[in-house]
Write a structure and sequence with these properties.
Shape: globular
Number of helices: 13
CATH superfamily of the domain at 76-284: Vaccinia Virus protein VP39
CATH topology of the domain at 76-284: Rossmann fold
Bound molecules: thymidine-5'-diphosphate, zinc ion
CATH class of the domain at 76-284: Alpha Beta
Helix content: 25-40%
Mean pLDDT: 96
CATH architecture of the domain at 76-284: 3-Layer(aba) Sandwich
Number of strands: 19
Radius of gyration: 21 Å
Distance between the termini: 43 Å
Strand order of the largest sheet: 8-7-6-9-10-13-12
Largest sheet: 7 strands, mixed
Amino acid sequence: MSANVTVRHRCRVCDSHRLYSFLDLGEMPPANAFLDKPSGQESFPLEAVVCEDCDHVQLRHTVDPELLFGEYHYFSSASAPMSEHFDAYADAVDDRYLDTDPFVVEIGSNDGVLLSQFPDRVGVLGVEPAANVAEAARERGVETLVEFFGSDVGARIRDNYGRADAILANNVVGHIDDLHGLMTGVDTLLASQGVFVVEVPYLVDTVANNQFDQIYHEHLSYFSVRSFQRLAEQFDMRVVDVERQSVHGGTIRVHIQRQAAGRSPTRMVRDLETLELALGLDGREAYDEFAHRVDRTRTGITKLFDRLKTGDVTIVGYGATAKGNVLLNYCDIGPETLAYILDTTPAKQGTYSPGMHVPVREPAVFYEDPPEYAVLLAWNYRDAILRNEAEREFRKAGGQFVLPIPAVDII
Ligand code: TYD
Ligand code: ZN
């Protein structure tokens, strides 16, 4: 196998070797590896497993993070609907946890959009491994270290800046192979009454809503509340609260504190634990059923496009998302079906989608010469996109959106 990938034989949360494989999406290139030219690129296996001891869902393989995150095309601020989410997020952390002279560290701070929402009295520091993205944060005035967060970096920040009252990790913990290294770093850096707030896509939503396209090499872990409980307790911490959020198709915001901080878990923590067990996420069957649904979805999507293509129509992709690339690669949909994918991110425009080589264009192309169909590859922004004036015009003029997830549909 390639030197750029390693096979995990042990659970990232509990170190068990009892990993049950339930979904194989085949080999594909990294989902964010947009290409300057439509040329060959390395593919890696994409296989999901569940730990039969702690029920943590994760990938069998780890692709070298330098290869995935060194030069990154994902800018948090590129998706307008997220700015509201980040604004409310910063307020919530500030109201609940921050006092006088507070210090907040964000792991995987991307272009600094969340940290920039905190008021001036809050000291903030970002940690972001992608140099090009960190540069955008600095331009925004957010001090940012270009690093992968782990125990060493946690210790260095503590020595240079002091302990953190809040450590935030937004859509990044699932990207970290060494979860114990992460937690050691958090343990080193976190103040005694501090909080570690994590947002991740929620396994319950991923499974219940057939979101197989969330499964890609960057996402090494698919968390439940129970996974976080198992992880936290190994560091004398506990999950004290959980909130469900609608972003990214269903997210949980998990609040973790030291056990010594003395807070007891809210009822929501116990309720979601109960829900996860009721849904059978502690057994094989729920995962086997999910895998069957994924296979049927591919058949449905493939058939729909085969039929649509027989007419004299143009079909495009809407949103050059990582998840969209999983979907296109898994369903084998390329430029013979999609004329282009439109995306608001300048760094993605003019590139080709990984694996399938569909050109990525700026949205103006779509508005100036509307196609018959737009496949909503950014289905997580469905409501916001459909509300846009220009998209309402597109539909009024006869254009249609094809929705791939949770089930193939035309709207
Ligand atoms: P996102 O769904 O956040 O992520 P992922 O890549 O993790 O699957 O990415 C949304 C992409 O869609 C991003 O590249 C910006 C683009 N986008 C648009 O082009 N138009 C829009 O109206 C919105 C909301 C997003
Ligand atoms: Zn485990």
